[in-house]
TrEMBL record:
The keyword Protein transport does not apply. PANTHER family: ALDEHYDE DEHYDROGENASE, ALDEHYDE DEHYDROGENASE TYPE III, ISOFORM Q. This is Aldehyde dehydrogenase. SUPFAM superfamilies: ALDH-like (SSF53720). InterPro entries: Ald_DH/histidinol_DH (IPR016161), Ald_DH_C (IPR016163), Ald_DH_CS_CYS (IPR016160), Ald_DH_CS_GLU (IPR029510), Ald_DH_N (IPR016162), Aldehyde_DH_dom (IPR015590), Aldehyde_DH_NAD(P) (IPR012394). One of its GO terms (molecular function) is aldehyde dehydrogenase (NAD+) activity. Residues 22-427 form the Aldehyde dehydrogenase domain. It comes from Sutcliffiella cohnii.
Length: 450
């Protein structure tokens, strides 16, 4: 499909100045909120059809989180859009300095399948708040949700403001041939590189929200019961198909057995003793991903779970022990309900192990000791994370969310989203009441010469 005319229409609409009006932005966000609320049940049904997401998970991780993001944005938008007066150095006497946030223009948002509604709409909130137009390319692997997204957006916004382009890789590539003013991509590291290469042709700025292997460390002094429950929650939510899910566990040797007992209990509490017959357990998105995940089940020793339902594409919450960095499961992001566990004695050994791999998107450390927490924070670079929790950091609008190195470029959520979709235009306002000569050439004695 030819997207040139759509992009052109959006550019013209952007140049009309409409999207820059604060009242227009607020009204658009209110419309979006209204449409999400009106389609709550349809969204729950679509997410059930695409991924067998439970109503609880669909609401908390795809709907409620967006309603909260819109509420927060609407509340703070009037102050975010204001030009910020900043300091002026003495060398610039007579002038004042301002930073004007301005929208980029026409933006492209490409999103993945794992939270197919939330990850398409959360960046859109930032794009609208900052005064941009947007084209969203949702994932082809969750067609019901992508269709509904398209329906919702077209019912509230004209295409020259916000449009949804459904389709697969070809659609993505056709869009990437156009000259966008900003590209916001959420997806795999591999495709992130394709996006950046395409963006480079037009020097289009990008945000890349990628993935990677996110470690979770349970130290010997951790509150084991709480650690077990919070890790089981963060790992098995959405059947492990969460970019910031703990990918693998490092548990201190002295507490490993005790931790695993609590972990089994926590998993049963959350998903029952027979999760495969739990109608609310999310399925794996495709047969290809199911087969990839199933092949890991012969790595190390299955200590918890390990059963699968090929027809239903479900895999039990599973723990593998006797794992080393050489195992296939430790080569790439797992993105499924399988948790490999390695043990350690010295924190320094695992820090070295993590250093030998690309910067994680998230990291979690469970310890009651501040010096252990500091040692981890000071010595490992990662996108973001938690001390004594998992995943929760991404739900705070005060914490910019994003990766570092291979796990991504840039960040968003809350004011971070507004900043991401805004260019900071720096302006110096100079006086004409006097003109200091020392900046000009051939003036030796400053003011005396005027
Ligand atoms: P993906 O990279 O395969 O696809 C993401 C999007 O890119 C889809 O819309 C897809 O159609 C498109 N795409 C795929 N191949 C393309 C190509 N060659 N050229 C242009 N576009 C292409 O990712 P996925 O499988 O949908 O999602 C899983 C990945 O996303 C995981 O690695 C996960 O960690 C990551 N992720 C990151 C975050 C985050 O916030 N950092 C959130 C969710 C998922």
């Amino acid at each position: 499909m030819d997207y040139s005319s759509l992009v052109l229409k959006q550019k013209q609409f952007f140049l009309s100045g409409k999207t820059k009006e604060i009242d227009f932005r607020k009204a658009a966000l209110q419309k979006l909120r209204g449409a999400i609320k009106n389609n709550e049940q349809q969204l729950i049904d679509a997410l059930k059809a695409d991924l067998n997401k439970s109503e609880f998970e669909a609401y908390t991780t795809e709907i409620g989180i967006l309603l909260e993001e819109i509420r927060f944005t609407l509340k703070h938008l009037p102050s975010w859009v204001k030009p910020q007066k900043v300091k002026t150095p003495i060398t610039h006497i007579g002038s004042t300095s301002y930073v004007y946030p301005e929208p980029y223009g026409v933006t492209l948002i490409i999103s993945p399948w794992n939270y197919p509604f939330q990850l398409a709409v959360a960046p859109l909130i930032g794009a609208i708040a900052a005064g941009n137009c947007a084209i969203i390319k949702p994932s082809e692997l969750t067609p019901k949700t992508s269709q509904l997204l398209s329906l919702i957006i077209s019912s509230i916004f004209p295409r020259e403001f916000v449009a949804v382009a459904e389709g697969d890789v070809e659609t993505s590539q056709a869009l990437l041939n156009e000259n966008f003013d900003y590209i916001f991509f959420t997806g795999s590291v591999q495709v992130g590189k394709v996006i950046m290469e395409a963006a480079a042709k037009n020097l289009t700025p990008v945000t890349l929200e990628l993935g990677g292997k996110s470690p979770c460390i349970v130290h010997e002094d951790a509150n084991i019961k709480i650690a077990a429950k919070r890790i089981a929650w963060g790992k098995f939510m959405n059947a492990g198909q969460t970019c910031v899910a703990p990918d693998y566990l490092y548990v201190h040797k002295r507490i490993k057995e005790d931790f695993l007992l609590h972990f089994k209990k926590a998993t049963e509490e959350l998903y029952s003793e027979n999760p495969l017959s739990n109608p609310n357990f999310t399925r794996i998105v495709s047969e290809r991903h199911f087969n990839r995940l199933q092949s890991f089940l012969n790595n190390g020793t299955v200590t918890i779970g390990g059963n699968v339902n090929k027809e239903g594409l479900t895999i039990e919450p599973t723990v593998l022990t006797n794992i080393s960095w050489d195992d296939p499961i430790m080569q790439d992001e797992i993105f499924g309900p399988i948790l490999p566990v390695m043990e350690y004695e010295q924190l320094s050994d695992i820090i070295e192990g993590i250093h030998n791999h690309p910067n994680p998107l998230a990291l979690y450390v469970f310890s009651e000791n501040e010096s252990i927490q500091k040692e981890v924070l000071n010595n490992i670079s990662f996108g973001g994370g938690c001390i004594n929790d998992t995943v929760y950091h991404l739900a705070s609008p005060y914490l910019p969310f994003g990766g570092v190195g291979n796990s991504g470029i840039g960040s968003y959520h809350g004011k971070g989203s507004f900043n991401t979709f805004s260019h900071n235009k720096s302006v110096l306002k100079q006086t004409t009441k006097f003109d200091l000569p020392f900046r000009y050439p051939n003036v030796k004695d400053g003011l005396k010469k005027i």
